[in-house]
Amino acid sequence: MANPRALDKRRKSVRNIRKITRTMELIATARYKQAMDRATAATAFTDRITKLVADLSSANLSIDHPLLEQRDSTENATLLVLTANRGLCGGFNGNASRAGVAQHKVLTGQYDNVSLEISGKKGIGLFKGMKSATPDKTYLEFEDKPRYEDVEVIAERLLEDYAAGKIDRFDVAYTKFISTSKQTAVIETLLPLGSLEGSDSEEETSSGESMYEFFPSAESILEEVVPTSFKVKLFKCFLDSAVSEQVARMTAMKAATENADDLISQLSMQFNRARQSRITNEIMEIIGGVEALEG
Amino acid sequence: MPSLKCIVVTPEETALETEAEFVALPLFDGEIGIFPNHSPMIGRLGFGEMRIVSGGQTKRYYVDGGFVQVNDNEINVLTGKAVEASTLDANTAEELLAEAQKKPVTTDELLATREKLVDQARAQIRVANKPNS
Predict the structure, then answer these.
(1) pLDDT tens per residue, range A198-214
(2) What is the mean pLDDT of chain A?
(3) Kindly report the CA angle at A163 between A104 and A116, in degrees rounded to 5?
(4) Tell me, what's the ipTM?
(5) Cβ contact, residue pair A41, B28, below 8 Å
(6) Cβ–Cβ under 8 Å, residues B113 and B105
(7) Reported pTM
(8) How many whole angstroms separate alpha carbon A152 and alpha carbon A166?
(9) B44: chain A residues, CB-CB within 8 Å
(10) Considering only CA atoms, which of B89, B9, B23 is closest in space to residue A41?
């Protein structure tokens, strides 16, 4: 028969763990809301840039820029994997890293030199564990509130390398936030950019002269818009990843709390049974003793 | 006279949304002043001071490049950074300048980056040192 005291001890420890996971869930919920607000605030900028591009393309301007063109050279590629610094968030880090490893394999097949950059302690650890590749650069400074200034530094460096021909392709593996119940690990090619959002609306508006005056010229503005839109896109990846991390942690901790609840009720039942059977045993012994005395 | 609507957005947030009578912005090659009923325009911004006059009061900000779009009495400013001039510190800006000037200039690209950083730091010093009018 199970020992009621051992059962009680286990129940206590499960209760403590439940407290921790419950608190973590609450913290993750609060952080998720903050991260979500930041992500929504960032869309204001993206929307305006898109509008600007649409207005630019109405000026009968052919949109071409070195950053938009596909390159034939297959020498150098860079892959950036975005993960979290902390664990306890379900499959978040694992999924992003797995997507990264797969893409790394694909890239090594196509390109001569593939450099790998990882953001987040967990991703670095996972890549080390899988022994598939060693990262060339790692970032630890991105927590749940990535700052544009920090991302801009990375973006500037990538743009410089791209312009100098040190990079021919730049991919990001990160967890895209689709809805609160769905986040998927995706790969996105950010360099070359392919096309600018808003530039396809050309058909409707290209008929007449643009009503805008351009300072200094539409071409020169376009030259600035393209790198900016790349930076913002990269920043958006970081934001998405931060939101997804908090959502993942929220769900994981919620599941853990529920699991602890189940365990507690199960242990309580076992504990009560064990106690009852012990009492019954003792009563039987007493009755047995009394009967022996009487007889 | 209609008033202007001035919206300043950075990638992180909408930094400012206000009514104004007059807005002065640093374009890439000099300052531009915008009164209501300005003709539609799109311009490239440089580093420097943005002044917003509303209700007779002038507010000063430092903007870090980007674009401006004026249409229908609405000014959209897209910039990497917009900070109030009073929060800028001349000393940190001086440090930035000193750091920028130390960068190597062995190639054309490096020279361009250095120029940009120097301009940026100088503009910050200018805005920070200007007395509040």
Answers:
(1) 666 544 444 456 688 88
(2) 88
(3) 20
(4) 0.82
(5) no
(6) no
(7) 0.87
(8) 19
(9) 215-216, 220-221, 224
(10) B9
Look at residues B14, B68, B20 and name the one whose alpha carbon lies nearest to residue B40: B68
Residues of A with CB under 8 A from a CB of B: 38, 41-42, 44-45, 48-49, 51-52, 55-56, 147-149, 152, 156, 160, 163-164, 211-216, 218, 220-221, 224-225, 228, 231-232, 235
Tokens encoding A246? 């908090």
Tell me the nearest-neighbour CA distance from A220 into chain B, angstroms: 8
One of 3.30.450.20, 3.30.420.10, 2.60.15.10, 3.40.50.300 is the CATH number of B4-85, namely: 2.60.15.10
- Helix, strand or coil for residue B24? strand
Tokens of B87: 């929060």
C-beta of residue A177 within 8 angstroms of C-beta of residue A95: no
Under the phi-then-psi rule, with left for phi > 0, alpha for psi from -120 to 50, and beta for the rest, what region is B109?
alpha
Domains of chain A by start residue, with CATH: 34-198+209-250 (3.40.1380.10)
Residue B23: CB atoms within 10 A of its CB come to 25
- Token pair in block for residue B63: 């903007």
